[in-house]
Amino acid sequence: LEEEDANDLTELLDDGLGANDDDESGNQSDEGDESDPETARPDDSTDTSNPRPRSRPLPPWLKSQFDVKVKASAQRDTDGLPALYREHRFWFSVEDPYFSLRSSIESLTPQNLYQAQFFLWDPAALLSSSDRIKCPRCNFSGLMRDGSLARPRRCIDLDHTFWTIGYRYRCPTCTNPRSKKTTVTLCSWDSRVIRNLPRALAACFPAMLTSRSGISESVFMFMRSCFQSGMGAKQFSDALRVRHLENYDKLHLQYLSKLARGKGIYEFRGKRFPRFLAFEDTSTDGYHGFTPSSQWLRDLFDKFIDDHRLDFDQAIALLTARICAIYHSFKLAKHIAKVNGEQVFIALLTITNEKGEIRVCNLVATKSHSQFELSLDRMRESLERYGHDQPEIFYTDNMADKDFLERCFPSLRESVISVEKYAHLPPLDLP
């Protein structure tokens, strides 16, 4: 829009200012269900005398779209499949904003353009009666569907937010320790439920969840690549926010363009239209936009690394080490928390192989050989266990490592004739 046209549009827009809400907590659609140990926060407590604060209600425009999807999913065929699954789809179709503008000329509001994307997750409907989901607690009974969850789970994608519609599953034999009744329920997106699914079906779930929110798996994998290429969590968080704001601004521009085309007739009829509110506005008419902070992304990445630590260790143990380089880096240790003002670690010891792959990575308190001797012994054992050749060459910037490395790897002495010290000088003959 030209600046002059944009200024003229202010006459058609109401002075609608959304109410601000300082509470930025996410959505919690699984209140009352058993807590997922992989997404529960340390401060999540089962003590009913001090319950967690409840989430704010969904905005009306989102609640209405959610209710329509849940109602449609409740219509099942004889096999228990909703219409969406009969069409071989997990995602509900989304109306393009352009058609939303065309179909709502007389009652045009910004909310007409807020078309949320929904993902339906009811894996129990896709399994046969002989292949029901096992209860993660008793590992015996098959879980039974016990209705849909009252709230969808918000998940962050590259430039928008999508919402997962889940179901509550109940174990027919597990009893609640308080009520002594069979009221133990889990969400369909609980990590323990997903682990008990066939691998092909579990791979269809598109998000990684936290205690109240989530992020799409494709964005998380892209974030891993960015981190590997040197991009920090703060920079990635900022880039993600820019993409979300650009997508929201595009909707705003479409809205203003529609008003600009009918400006004359709207003024003649004295019709006014509501303004587009801020991206983060949490009033009933607000967009309720959200992008994760850098700390949130960092914590999610750290948890992923911790969960897959054994896999990473195994992958490193399978690497070759024919030609190695050993060195100490002092930069990383400066960013590690100190104890009583003193550094616990002074350096990061790294050993790379002939392909530039990290074979050993240890934080050390001193440069003493005793700090990493055990790691070298484990490296020698793994090379022998997986049929790799022992090291032939070691590069180091400290010649004092020579005897130590030869003791850890006897292969370094094979076919090597050591040069005697001062061999270029004639021997001294004493009378």
From TrEMBL:
| Listed InterPro entries | DUF6729 (IPR046616)
Regions of biased composition (Acidic residues) lie at 1-37
One Pfam family cited in the UniProt record for this chain: DUF6729
Transmembrane parts of this sequence: none
Q: Where is the DUF6729 domain?
A: 84-266
Give the top-rank taxon of the lineage listed in the UniProt record for this protein: Eukaryota
Where are the annotated segments for Disordered? 1-61
Protein name in the entry? DUF6729 domain-containing protein
Give the source species.
Mycena pura
